Amino acid sequence: MKTSLIIFLLASFSLHAQSAFNKEVKAIVQKYDSLYDASQESIVFTGSSSIRVWKDLQERFPEHQIINSGFGGSQAIDLLQFTDELILRYHPKKVFIYEGDNDIQNKKRPKDIIRTITAIKDSIFKENPQTEIVFISAKPSLARWKLRRKYKRLNRKMEKMTYTDGRLLYVDVWNPMLDGRKVKQDIFVEDGLHMNPKGYEIWYSVLKDYLN
């Protein structure tokens, strides 16, 4: 009886999570149906809202075809559910993934987050084993500073994933966003979570070398 209830609840949660993002994912697909050029190599940036609200990604990297398929509020499990629509659809040569931020906030354990990220990685490699995957570390923020130890633990585990596979890279945005032992105060919008242009300038300076 208990097992059946657990299965039912998990299934219900999965359906709810998927339906919650259906509209946003559909809008992303419709947008790139008109922009995506299959004759050119593409680079996908995907993950939660720190990617979604990076509005000038294409302008930052004009020599590349950039697909920004970030969707706000997502967790790793959501990206896993929409891997086909948000990543594989564009046959990318490289994928930048930012997930884990919302997962920690929602009390998921770092090892469970890594398990889901591994499943995303496996799906990408199954489609194209030559794809390069860049994991962007969880960022520090004013709003979630109290969770910093869990974020740092997740980042260590994420970096460790890349040690034995040359197709995997880890980029640290955590330390560049710090001022000594504290997070920088002037790189966020009013909510203390999402970044302003100064924050994205830090990300750009760190990430630019990983695109080539």
From TrEMBL:
The family database entries (SUPFAM superfamilies) matched by this protein are listed as: SGNH hydrolase
Q: Name one Pfam family in it.
A: Lipase_GDSL_2
Signal peptide positions are: 1-17
EC number assigned by the record: 3.1.1.-
What GO terms are given for molecular function?
Answer: phosphatidylcholine lysophospholipase activity
Top enzyme category: hydrolase
Q: Which residues form the SGNH hydrolase-type esterase domain?
A: 53-202
Cited InterPro entries: Ester_Hydrolysis_Enzymes, SGNH_hydro, SGNH_hydro_sf
UniProt keywords, alphabetically: Hydrolase, Signal
The yes or no answer to whether the keyword Transcription regulation is present is: no
What is this protein's record name? Acetylesterase, lipase-GDSL family
Species of the source:
Zobellia galactanivorans (strain DSM 12802 / CCUG 47099 / CIP 106680 / NCIMB 13871 / Dsij)
